[in-house]
Amino acid sequence: MMDYQQLLTQRRSHPAWRLLAADHAPMIASFLHRSFIAPNVRTIARQQLISQLDDHLFQLHEIAGESLFPKSAVSYLDDWASDERGWLRKYYPQGQDEPHYDLTSSAEQALEWLSGLSQRNFIGTESRLNTVFGLLKQIIDGTELNPGARIAKLQKRRADIDAEIAKINEGHLELMEPTQVRERFLQMASTARELLSDFRALDQNFRMLDRSVREQIATWEGGKGELLQQIFGKRDLIADSDEGRSFRAFWDLLMSPSRQDELGKMLEQVMALVPIRELEPDGRLRRIHYDWLEAGEVTQRTVARLSEQLRRYLDDKTWLENRRIMELIRTVEQNALALRGHIPEQTCMTIDDSHPDVALPMERLLHSPPFKAVIREIPLGDACPEIASDALFEQVYVDQGRLLSNLRRVLQMRRQVSLGSLVADYPIEQGLAELATYLKLATQDVVAVIDDERTEHISWIGSDGRCREASLPMIIFTLRGKNDE
Amino acid sequence: MSGDDRFGPVLVALFQGVLYREHAEPLWQSLQDLQARVRDYGGAMGLELILDEAEGYAYLRQRTPVAEEPELPRLVQRRQLSFPVSLILVLLRRTLAEFDATGGETRLVVSRDDIADQIRVFLPSTANEARLLDRIDTHIGKIVELGFLRRLRGPEAQYEVRRILKAFVDAQWLGEFAERLDAYAHQATARSEEDP
After folding, report:
1. For residue B31, which of B46, B17, B21, B44 has the smallest C-alpha distance?
2. A-interface mutation test, from B83, B158, B172, most A Cβ less than 10 A away
3. pLDDT at A395 over 80
4. A347 touches chain B (CB under 8 A)
5. In angstroms, what CA-CA distances link B138 with A361, A371, B141, B192?
6. Residue numbers in B near A214 (CB within 8 A)
7. Ramachandran sector of residue B46 (left: φ over 0; alpha: ψ -120 to 50; beta: rest)
8. In whole angstroms, how far apart are CA B164 and each of A315, B18, B23, B170?
9. How far is A111 from chain B, CA to nearest CA, in Å?
10. What is the pLDDT of residue A236?
11. Residues 356-375 of A with CB under 8 A from B
12. Complex ipTM tops 0.90
C-alpha cells in the first residue's frame, strides 16, 4: 500500500485524500462536519441539505466580506455527490420521493484525520500497554484447551483478589493517580469515537460485499449448483462474514437494557471525577452509547435488507430469468441499431394493460375553470380617522347579580316561575340586553326548563319610551335540587 | 362478516390498476387473506391474479385460453406502442437489470436526460435537439400512463422505474420484439434492393 505507484494512484482516486487536497477543503470539511458528524446524523433530505449549505456559505461570505465560493449550493452539492468526488452518497429511501444524502465512509475518514490534528498532546503509554496485556490474556484464556490450566489461572486470580481484600481491610486503599485516570479516560474516549465513526465504514463494507456477490452471480457462466458451492453454499453471506458476526455480537451486547444502564451510570460517574473534569471533555461522550445505538441501528437495517435482497436475487426464477433477459435485450438492441435509418412508422409492439378495462364515462367531471385569484397592487393607505366609534362604547352593562337576586326572591315564595311572571314582578329595565341575559342565565347558570312547544310574550318599555314586545319559548325557572315529577 | 367487507375494495383496487403493498398496506393484507376468493372471481371472467409477494405488487391479467374451455372476450386491453416507446421500455428494463446486479438499493430513479442519452443512438440523428427532447417527453408520458414510470414529486424531471416492468417486459415480450425488428430489417433491405 505504501509504494510510490500505489500512492500516486491513491492520491488521484481515494476520496479521502482528494478531500484533503481540494481547494475549498476548509469550507467543505467544516460543512460536512457540522451537518453529519457533530449531530451524529446518517441521512439528510436534499432540500434541507441545500438550505444548510446555503446558510453555511452565506455565513462564510459575511465574515470574509466577499464572495469566496462562486457556485450555488445546489451545484456544490451535486458535485460532492458525483462519482468523481465520492464525498456524499445519494439515495432514495423507501416511501420518499426526495433523494437523501449521507456522508461517505472515505469522507468521514478524512474528517477524522483532520480533527485528530488538533488533539491534545497528552500521549499516554501505561494504560495502552495494559490494554495490550489484557487483550492477549483474553485470547489465551479463551483458547486454553486444558481445563487444569484454566482452573489454575482462575485460582491464582482468586488468590490475588483475596490479597487485595485483605489489604483494604488493613486500611490500605489503593487509588489511581490522576495521571492514570486521565490517561485511561482519553484512551476510552478515543476508542469510543473510533467505534462511532466505524459504522459508516461497516455499512460500506457490507454494501461492497453484497455488490461483489451479485457481480459474481450475474457473470457466472456455469450452472447454478457450482455457483452456490463457490459462494460457500451459504444463503446469508453478509451476516456470516467476519464483520457481520462481530457486528452481531456487538449489537446483542449493546442492546441489553442492563448493559445500557451500566454504561450510562459508569459514564456519569467517570465524567464527575475531578481529574476528568479538569480535562474539559466533550459532553457528547456522556451519551456515546445512545450515539452507538443510533448508528448501529442504521447498519443493522442495512445488513438485514441486504441479506434479504440477496436471498431473493439468488432465487431460482430470478437468476435464470435475468440471464435470458440480458441476452434478449442485447439482441433487441443489435436489431434496433441495424434499423437506424428506417424506423417503422406504424405500431411496433403491443403490451397488455395492467388491469381489466372499466369504462366510466360519467365519472368524468365537468370542466371547472381554474380559480384565478386577482391580486391587485394598490398601495395601502392609512385608515380615515373619522369613523364613528361611539357604537363600540355604547354597550349596555347588565348586572347579572341583580337578575339573580330577583329570581331568588321570587323562588322563595314559589317552587317555580316562568320568565313572564318573573318580569311581571321585576320589570325589565335595560331592554333587550336584560332579556338576553335572562336567557343566558337560563341556559348556563341556573336550573331552568325551556319548552319549545309553548311561547310567552314579554314586553317592556324601552329607553325611548316606546313599548316593545318579544315572543320566546316558555322558560321556567325552578329551585336547584328539587326534582318535581 | 369482515371478510365480505374487505372483498369489494380489494377487487375495485385490482380493477383500477396494480395494487402495491407500499402504497396500500391494509388492502394488500386483505388481498393476502382473500386470495382464493379473488382468484375464483377473476377466473370466472377469464382473469388471472398475479401476486408477487417478494416484489410487493399484485394485478389481474388475461388468462391464456385453455383448449377445452370456451374462450371469453378479452377484458384486459392491449395497448399499442410505437417504436421509440417500445425501445425505451427495453432500455429501462436493461437499466433495472443492471441496477439489480449491483445491489444495495431497490428503487431505481432515472432522469429524462438519462433516458434521452440512452435512446439517442437508436434514433436518426437530428440537429434539432429541442424537438428530440420534446418527443422523448411525449414517449415518457405514454410510459407513465402505462404505469411503468412514476414521476417523482419535486422540481426536476425524475422518474422511478416501477419494478412491475419486469412482469410485462419479460423474456417472451423481448423475444417477440427482437423477431419483429429482424423482420423489419429484412423488409427494409428487400425494399432497397427493389429500387433501382
Report:
1. B21
2. B83
3. no
4. yes
5. 25, 28, 5, 31
6. 100-103
7. left
8. 18, 9, 14, 10
9. 25
10. 66
11. 356-358
12. no
